[in-house]
Amino acid sequence: ASVVTTYTMTVRDGSSGAENSTTFSLGIAPALAVTQSLYSKVLSMNSNVNLTAINVTGGVSPVVSISPSLPQGLNLNASTGEITGIPTVETGATTYTISVTDQNASPVKRLTLS
């Protein structure tokens, strides 16, 4: 979580003494960090899948995406990176690129599912 600090800025006219103040808050979010917890996984057709390929911490509203699309029956949670569902179509081993983006960074991780 970001630590927010409030500041007050005052501008004073040296000749008339008139002044004007404004207050603003400034916070610095933790850096986006992505760690890969799964590098390769063999899945069984028609069996429940619930796996976390990456762990995402920090950043500002990070979003997870995957390319190419997952096999039919599997879904990617764009907030957590969790892959869930029941694969209904047999596919060969495929390398997927998982990208995590936020307002400041775009780490990329690779995952092979078969």
From TrEMBL:
What's a single GO MF annotation on this record?
calcium ion binding
InterPro entries reported for this sequence: Cadherin-like_sf (IPR015919), Ig-like_fold (IPR013783)
Gene Ontology CC, one term: membrane
Q: Name one Pfam family in it.
A: He_PIG
- The highest taxon in the source lineage is Bacteria
The signal sequence is none
Its name, as the record gives it, is Hemagglutinin
